[in-house]
Predict the structure of Selenocysteine-specific elongation factor.
Amino acid sequence: MRILTKHFTIGMAGHIDHGKTSLTKALTGVDTDRLKEEKERQISIEPGYAPLELADGSVVSVVDVPGHERFIRQMIAGVSGIDLVILVIAADEGVMPQTKEHLEILKFLQVKKGMVAFTKIDKVDEDFLELAKEEILDELSGTIFEGVPIVFVDSLKKSGIQEMKQILQKELESIQEKHATGNFRLPIDQVFSLKGQGTVVRGTIIEGKINNGDLLEVMPGGQAAKVRQLQVHNKKVEQAVAGQRVAVNLSGLSKDSIKRGDVLARENTYDTTDTIDVSLHMVENLQYPIKQRSRIKVHIGTAEVLGKIVFFDRNEYDGHKDEDVLCQLRLDEPITCSRGDKVILRRPTPAETIGGGWIIQPSGSVYKFGQSTIDTLRRIKQGTPEERVKEAFLKSDLLSLENLKREAGLESNVLVQLEEQGLIVNVTGNLYAHEPMIMEKERQLAGHIQEYHVMHPIRIGIPKAELFSELSNSTSIDLIEFVLGKMETAQIVLRNENLVYLEGFLPSYPKQWQRRMEQVAEELAGDKLTPMPFSLYCEKAALPEKEALDLKHFLLKQNKAFQLDDSHLIASREFHAAVDLLKSRTDDEVELGEIKDLLQLSRKYLIPFVELMDALGITEREGTTRRWI
């Protein structure tokens, strides 16, 4: 036999007085009716909890939930964290009204595993027992209890108890455990204080783990608390994990500041909300239709709050057909919940369970009535976190975390995980972008710049302002700036002042103008230190104005020429040759007249020439003298 290392909670459900508490005691040795009123009235009012030791030595928690109609709230709170349900049916009575309601609730909570225990078998003869079994199996057809193991027990004589334990052991081996690696969350179902110990809360951990000394908060109030001590089934432990029922002794909080329905969690890991989007199924036989904005009781985990139901594709639901109803619950007070949490809906008056389902988005928005909202909710329901994030960024390439959380129906802790995984990236301030979109924008930018290089091979690069102008219709400026900076860091693109170009790109003459541009450059160099106005060279070569401007910029940016004055360029090769000549014929200083004589320049070219030397840092002016630097 494989030893169970997982942690599970088993629930007892069924009609009042069908023997749930007696069966729990027979299995565990613990009487879960601990309240004085429970003893006096011989009914369970609050969920009772007991440890069950199986044959392999592993221990699971057993929850004995109330069966009376007036204690449905406590029943829901008790079964909200269970992994397997034992449906208890008295052999002498069969399926009763509360049995059916419990079945509906368990269906809505999507409890996957179950077994049936026929109790009080001593009260019927064997022939009647077989008949009762057949009738009950018909009743259970189509429920989660169809085809499950069945055991006959007498809790007082303990007949069938060992067989039941063996079946439980086998069934639990096939159940997937809760997420012990997630963020810790404990819906609180009991709060009390002990003299000398302070405030204690109890519940079943549904996610993550808790350690002695942990700093936590009680949601939705946000009160800070520190774990002083942990107990699992009255034994002190250093750590408790998902699936275990635990008592947590908290310091820093009074008993009166906590109530059942609150959630113990790590700081900033779960959301508080009063508007939730849900996927619901309703019971088949409603007493009355559910009208638009009807008042409802909402049960989530161990919490019960009042609110109203808001439909977006109908004005009422009459329950005549089984369908997936996508709608919104607007609550009178905030709760702490997460996507995937199960929901039970009850009508306040007349009291009845009307439906249940699960939360598809814990922080809902205000939507318009119509099919488009239903389509949006269906996409939110069906998509993975990654798919929902992708869809949210299709509406806007930059989103704040708050908007992303709302648009994608995600909790804060999931967003943190997605950021750690690199799926969402902080771009600027509180604005985030989708990593696949960033990569796509990189490709777009690179492609756009490459296209510019092909169209304008003589230009050093595209002006940044032009690049932003052409892309800003489809992309936020902040995102373009971020992506461009990222590409620069990776040296995919480079900048020359305000010009942006791809790494490895070298400007060259366009093929259709190459010969004419070469002619201009050759004639400019041929005129050495006394060039014509640059426009005349271009006119002589029949170079159009646009290409003439491109050539001018090319020669200047590539340091093939210098701007002598507003109209003239000078070939850089000829300029440097003249400077070398001057340096070789003069000492540390040179007079303006000396430069004029050595270079044979008229004043028209002399003054621009020496000013160019000053501007380039070759010389420094001192009156009419230039000192070599």
About this structure: DSSP finds 19 helices and 35 strands in the chain. Residues 34-46, 67-71 have pLDDT under 50 and may be disordered. The first helix runs from residue 20 to 28.
